[in-house]
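Consider the tokenized backbone below.
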């Protein structure tokens, strides 16, 4: 918006929305590890680069991008330099540091699916059942409710198309293992816990 104001002598709604998307997407991967000044710096850099993509590169390359999704969203992701696993890890760490118990719970609840999915792969059935028994009954009910709620809305045709497109998107952003990258958040959690014991 400010760049719009300076260069075009008036702020625009598109400028406000574009700046908001660019800033949010760029700061998300680093949100748990930078302070206020770091966030401002990331926001400023992403705003300038994304404005340049939308105002000049799009015109120069003549590509069709009526909503500026490529120029803003994708480039902001690249500026964030983070895999999906890292973004999940940062989100989890940010939730755990909250003073609000509901936010902390959302962090644990969010990561639980990844942890259980990985545990089921590497543990015997007996070990996995022991881990499942440690989860409180009301948490299990909430987890099952969420799973069935989203499964009821799931369309196999749209899901297959989405998975294919998303796999292309992730690999295009140098995340070689595609959607499998999400569950690698568990590796980051284990490494982080080991690191904490060393210091």
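A designed sequence for it:
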């Amino acid at each position: 918006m400010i760049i719009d104001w300076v260069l075009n002598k008036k702020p625009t709604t598109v400028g406000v929305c574009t700046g908001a998307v660019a800033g949010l997407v760029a700061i998300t991967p680093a949100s748990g590890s930078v302070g206020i000044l770091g966030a401002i710096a990331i926001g400023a850099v992403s705003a300038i680069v994304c404005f340049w993509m939308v105002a000049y590169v799009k015109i120069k390359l003549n590509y069709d991008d009526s909503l500026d999704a490529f120029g803003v969203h994708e480039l902001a992701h690249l500026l964030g330099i983070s895999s999906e696993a890292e973004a999940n890890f940062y989100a989890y760490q940010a939730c755990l540091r909250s003073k609000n118990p509901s936010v902390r719970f959302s962090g644990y609840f969010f990561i639980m699916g990844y942890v259980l999915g990985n545990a089921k792969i590497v543990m015997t059935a007996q070990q996995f059942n022991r881990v499942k028994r440690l989860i409180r009954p009301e948490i299990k009910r909430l987890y099952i409710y969420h799973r069935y709620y989203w499964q009821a809305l799931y369309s196999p045709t749209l899901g297959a198309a989405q998975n294919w497109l998303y796999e292309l998107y992730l690999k295009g952003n140098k995340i070689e293992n595609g959607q499998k990258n999400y569950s690698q958040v568990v590796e980051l959690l284990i490494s982080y816990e080991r690191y904490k014991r060393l210091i």
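Residues 2-80 form one domain.
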